[in-house]
Amino acid sequence: MSHKFKKKIRPFDPTKPLSESSSYDTELGEKARREFPLDPKSKPRRRGRGAGETVAVGDAWDAWVWHPEARSGAGNWLTHGASVYNLPNKFGKRNQILKHPKHKSYYKTLLGELGQRRTAIYDKETNRSYSKPAWWLGNFGRKN
Question: Which of 25, 69, 77, 111 is most deeply packed, by most CB within 10 A?
Fold first, then answer.
C-alpha cells in the first residue's frame, strides 16, 4: 500500500519574507486553473523537440511542457501553470506576475516577458510585480 503525502504549502503573501510565504501565488493560479482548465486529451502525441518546449492549448491556464528527463529519461509532457495572470480581470489584477521575485525560475518569467517586448514593474502598494509593455516605461512617472 502506497501513501501519498501532500506537501503543506504556505500561502502566498508578498509582504512576508520567502521563508514565511510561498514563492508562487497558488491561490490565484488554482482559481484560474478551475476557470480555464486544460483538456487532458490535448496532450501532444509526439516527442518534444527539446527541453522546455511548450504547447499552449486555447485559453487553458496550463500548458504542456516537454521534460526529457521524465519517465527515466524517456521523456514526457507535463503540465505547467502560467507565470503571468493575463486572463480577464476576474480574480486578480491583469498582468500580475504570480511568482515572487525570489522564486527559482522568476528570471525565466522575465526573459519570456522580454521576448514579448514586455517588462516587469514592482508595485510598492500591493507588493506585487506586474507585466507591462516595454513602451509603458516611456510613460513612467507621467500623470495622465
Answer: 25
Q: 82-114 pLDDT, tens per residue?
A: 888 776 666 657 788 888 877 888 888 888 888
Residue 9 lies in a domain: no
Q: Which of 62, 65, 77 is closest to 32 using CA atoms? A: 62
- H or E, element range at 35: helix 26-35
State the DSSP H helix or E strand holding residue 25, giving kind and residue range, or none if neither: none
- Cβ proximity of 36 and 61 under 8 Å: yes
The answer as to whether 6 is a domain residue is: no
Kindly state the greatest CA–CA separation across the chain. 64
Is residue 64 within 8 A of residue 77, CB to CB? The reply is yes
Angle (CA) 49 51 54, round 5°: 75
104 within domain boundaries = yes
Q: pTM of the prediction?
A: 0.67
Identity of residue 37: P
